[in-house]
Amino acid sequence: MNVIQNLKWRYATKAMNGQVVPQEKVDYILEAIQLTASSSGLQPYEVLVITDPEVKQKLRAVAWDQSQVTDASHVLVFAAWDQYTEERINKVFERSNKQRGLPNSATDAYRTRLIGMMGVKSAEENFHHAAKQAYIALGSALVAAAEQKVDSTPMEGFDNAAVDEILGLAEKGLKSVIVLPLGYRDETKDWLVNMKKVRTPKEELVTLV
Amino acid sequence: MMNSPLTILEAAASSGFFNFQELLRQWRRLICVYTFKMSAFNQLL
């Protein structure tokens, strides 16, 4: 199936049946996240893969009791950098230069400009910029999951501070952005499964200039 | 023995008066849509 067919197939699954997603499919989705685009290639986020039932139960309690959090076999938590720092940015560029066989001086001008640009912004502004990059990864994850016929439910409806506390994200300089349960639809309980997918008409969405 | 409303509905359905499964499905859907905001709060559709 192609991308369009996969996107037509996917939906925000409302009920999952507890069936476990095979590890190779999870790995495929994680690789899509790893390979996706980000601003200046910084990838300013991490993805936590939650399979521990107790942790999932704790997360569900702070996510409006949404059943997918515990009925999914894997719950991905996208957590963005809480701030851009010189150290974090340098690490990304140094890794890239090393793997490409380039001296660090090759990217000095760009890196210095980037650090200067981020340095004048508040931690909050930088976090929002990092969070936007995490959403790009989310998009890639949704497409990859659909290709693997794995259902998913992207969620913003949770207490971010509580999730950060449960997963110890502050200690890592991270803040939760989005939660993505992965599993399989329960067609007998899912009221959305047979409903029409409704989207903004192309003529409203797209303007030819 | 008193017939429960469900038994009466099942009897009517088995006589071909209406599709019981479809009625059940629509009822479930109605309940789910009614509770939409709580069961699917702030998801990306």
From TrEMBL, chain A:
The keyword Aminoacyl-tRNA synthetase does not apply. Keywords: Flavoprotein, FMN, NADP, Oxidoreductase. Residues 7-184 form the Nitroreductase domain. Its cofactor is FMN. It comes from the Bacteria. It holds the Pfam family Nitroreductase. PANTHER family: NAD(P)H NITROREDUCTASE YDGI-RELATED, NITROREDUCTASE. Belongs to the nitroreductase family. This is NAD(P)H-dependent oxidoreductase.
